[in-house]
Write a structure and sequence with these properties.
single chain; about 120 residues; mainly alpha
């Protein structure tokens, strides 16, 4: 599961009124037993923002700059339908925008820039 999807679910849980500790316990429960899970269990006073940082490092998800570059340079593959290509770059666009809204973002991609890049990539195929 991409980091952005997991973060979205965490944020939705908080918006629905679950406490940070309930959300953290739930996330830890869904992680397969491993040393990463053991580490998270043993951290005292873990907060959601710290959990997100640990998850990003563990999942090794691309940062906003890597995602933007991928959006800029993606080409439709020979066996990829136009719809598959569209959904792929739409997902990249959404991930760039999501990452730009995260706390601590040192560089934020403007929505217009991301939209123009998306349209350019779509036209170039």
């Amino acid at each position: 599961m991409p980091y952005s999807n997991l973060c979205k679910q965490v944020d939705e849980g908080l918006q629905e009124g679950f406490t940070e500790s309930e959300v953290i316990r739930t996330v830890i429960k869904i992680i397969k037993p491993c040393s990463f899970r053991d580490m998270l269990i043993n951290i005292c006073d873990l907060i959601v923002d710290e959990l997100k940082r640990f998850l990003r490092a563990h999942i090794r998800d691309k940062n906003r700059t890597e995602l933007f570059q991928e959006l800029s340079n993606t080409k439709q593959q020979d066996r990829e339908s136009p719809q598959q290509f569209f959904y792929k770059i739409m997902c990249l666009k959404q991930r760039v925008l999501f990452e730009s809204q995260q706390p601590g973002a040192e560089f934020i991609y403007d929505k217009r820039l991301v939209q123009c890049t998306f349209l350019h990539t779509l036209k170039q195929g």
